[in-house]
Amino acid sequence: MTKTTRGLVVGATAVMLTAVAVASAGIHLRGQAFFQDSPKELVDEVWQIIDRNYVDGTFNQVDWLSVRTEYLDRNYTTQEEAYKAIREMLEQLNDPYTRFMDPEEFKNMQIDTSGELTGVGIHLSQDEETNQLLVVSPIEDTPAFKAGIIAKDFIIKIDGKSTEGMDVNDAVKLIRGPVGSSVTLTILRGEEEIDFPIERERIEIHPVNYSYQQEQNGEGIGYIRLKQFSNPAAREMRDAIADLEAQNVSGYILDLRSNPGGLLYASVEIARMWLENGRIVSTVNRKGESDAQWAKRRALTDKPLVVLVNGGSASASEILSGALQDNQRALIVGTKSFGKGLVQSVRPLEDGSGLAVTIAKYLTPSGRDINKLGIAPDVEIALTDEQKQQLRRDLTKIGTKADPQYAIALKVLNQEIAKRRENPRLSIGF
Question: Which residue among the candidates 326, 353, 361, 403 is catalytic per the annotation?
Fold first, then answer.
């Protein structure tokens, strides 16, 4: 697994309406002319990848060999016809996370590794049961966030066009557009339909924000907010911990709220910064073969740690919080996380297009399969709608005592710091 984690995406998104982070994927240009002349070969290439790697060996109870025969018996005169056929073929798997991307979509998907995005700032998926377009979370301080879109909203119209039966890729094409242009998203929230006119922007994202906070009792608290597991996340997390350690903090609050996930290797590397030993995550493929990632005795700190999560904390966030919880390295505060426990491998195809394919499910160190179940907090504290709106209107309150979930996390952390002072040998997870 160590050799391949940089190509794996565990974000809860089928699409980020900016991009999905994929490191080291690259675009294969070799043989591109051949595939342009023979689009049927591209259809077969996708079929072969699914046949060898897809997590469900029954292929959603579909006769996958017959599918190959059906689609290779067709004649394709253009790449677009092949692309349409591939998407039809993949729909039979009923897996919103396994998807085909044409060259433009695949290129857009890779942009996230640079930290500069163009769009409205929504992490978008497809509900596994209803196939409705589902907002995993808006990216903080982006047009979608400022407009008031929240996790678990359903997008039912785009500029007045119904999204019923719409593929995620088609939705992305409608929502994306030039910087400065506008799109209206109609959201279903509970029983209420709400229109959100949003102006598209260019967005620069630094995944880690942190601060040193002085308590009245003299304790120094390190607060770290991790927004997504993108390519720079591990480096920025390492720098944050090093700086806060130099300031001699007594403990940490790690905020993973509304973090939709991202790169598997980033979550593993960040877990190693907090864990001295122990299992971090196991991935299990369709043959039942398990591959585990472990801590490497390179933790940057052993100080008390509390982690904040909510319903928008997904996948890589759940890997990290699950690892810290199962190894008794941290206490989890907030509300139950999103519940997405599937791993995708992103494959470049010969004509410059790409394929994201679900290849495994992941388990926490204790063997928990969190798909659709999520990580349950040790201390549950939910925000009221009014509290959520107050924090949205003033982002400076997030991670302060004006943030009710943070306030509880701080209380829990101070209790853990006090326990450590009473018993200096107490070093959870080490």
Answer: 326
Among 250, 315, 345, 353, the active-site one is 315
What is the Cα gyration radius of the chain? 22
Please give the Cα distance from 155 to 193 (Å, whole number).
Answer: 9
84/96 Cα distance (integer angstroms): 16
Q: Are 192 and 150 in contact (CB under 8 A)?
A: no
For 104, residues 6+ apart whose C-beta sits below 8 A from its C-beta are none
Which among 42, 51, 101 has a CA at the least distance from the CA of 74?
Answer: 42
| pLDDT tens digits for range 88-97 | 999 999 998 8
Rounded Cα–Cα distance for residues 253 and 396 (Å): 16
Q: What pTM does this model have?
A: 0.75
**Active site annotation includes 315:** yes
Known active-site residue 326? yes
Tokens of 199: 């102006």
CA gap 2, 227 in Å, rounded = 24
- Does residue 305 register a pLDDT over 90? yes
**What pLDDT, in 10s, does the model give residues 232-287?**
999 999 999 999 999 999 999 999 999 989 889 999 999 999 999 999 999 999 99
Give the end-to-end CA distance of the chain in Å, rounded to a whole number: 24
Q: Go through the domains of the chain in sequence order and give each one's CATH number.
A: 116-204 (2.30.42.10), 208-342+362-422 (3.90.226.10)
Question: H or E stretch including 146?
Answer: helix 143-147
Q: Which amino acid is at 408?
A: I
